[in-house]
Amino acid sequence: MTMATKEKCSSFRTYNINELKPIERLNINDNRVNELINSMQPVVIENSGFVSSALHWDLNYLRDHLGSGKFTVYESDSHVFKYYDEKKMKKNKAFKPQSRRCDMTLTEFSEKIKDKTQSDKRYYLQQELNDGVSSRMVEDFKAFRWDWVTAHQKRNNWGPLTANLLLIGQEGNVTPSHYDEQENFFAQLQGEKRFILFPPSQFGCLYPHPVYHPHDRQSQIDFDNIDLTRFPKFDRVQGVEAVVKPGDVLYIPNYWWHHVESRLHAEPTISLTFWYKCAPPGTIEYPLKPHQKVAMMRNIEKMIAEALDNNNEVDPFMQNMILGRYTSSTH
Hints:
This protein is an alpha+beta fold. The chain folds into two domains: 21-277, Jelly Rolls (Sandwich), CATH 2.60.120.10; 290-322, no CATH class. It contains eight helices and 14 strands. The protein has helices spanning 32-38, 59-65, 106-114, 135-142, 146-155, 203-206, 290-308, 311-322, and strands at residues 21-22, 25-27, 43-46, 73-76, 99-101, 122-128, 161-169, 174-178, 182-190, 193-198, 240-244, 249-252, 257-262, 269-277. Helix 1 (32-38) links the parallel strand 2 and strand 3 (43-46). The radius of gyration is 21 Å and the shape is globular. The two termini are 25 Å apart.
């Protein structure tokens, strides 16, 4: 494997991954933006003006206008923040998450990430925007270019907007490779983030956790310590990358794997996500597209897990179903 490509003055982490191609970076007025979104290909959109009214949302502004309530914050003993489904922990008693939820006010969070004596802990705020924000912040939100994003929603037959997630991360924080089942416009407000994306066709190379596992939709591969003995197909993985800067909007199609990290030795990053439900299946055309195959695999796996109602039985059941039946005798 060769070292992942880096930007000239990069201060992001280095991984032993096959060379990554750059994600296309286009002006909002470029017709290819529509073409790429329509074909479910990622693209970095420049000069969109989509969230221009929020580019002043730094920590001080948010502390004054986001409200005094508690916000969802995760604490980790390392730079890694790997998502886990708390509901699925009930049937996975032995599972111990790498990070812990510890809700706090924005003032408390700000003090935590500024306090250098807390260097053994890291924090990441992930909060849905709600009605508790100030009227001034509401005006900022209303001033977003909703006409632009709604046009894409209608053109591609997406469902409704499901969530706006405010993300505030410390320098060097990492969200490991995972995929979502929604369309996502990721808008950068403060600082810079690097994205490494892999298409749904690379599903087998990323070794996702089982659907019943709390790390469902997350890759099992640790990019900091890649184990090709356990995950040999990762040696063939093909991906793309981009660094998003304030004002940039990255379109992440559903089922595209994405690894996200904040720049090292820099100020905190502040971002907003806009998640939309996927378009309904409609008429199925063959051959199936990669994201349709992933959806079909997930549905089958979910059905088996629910029918067995015992996580310990799922792995041997799946192996017995495949081994000797769908394995070629020539291999």
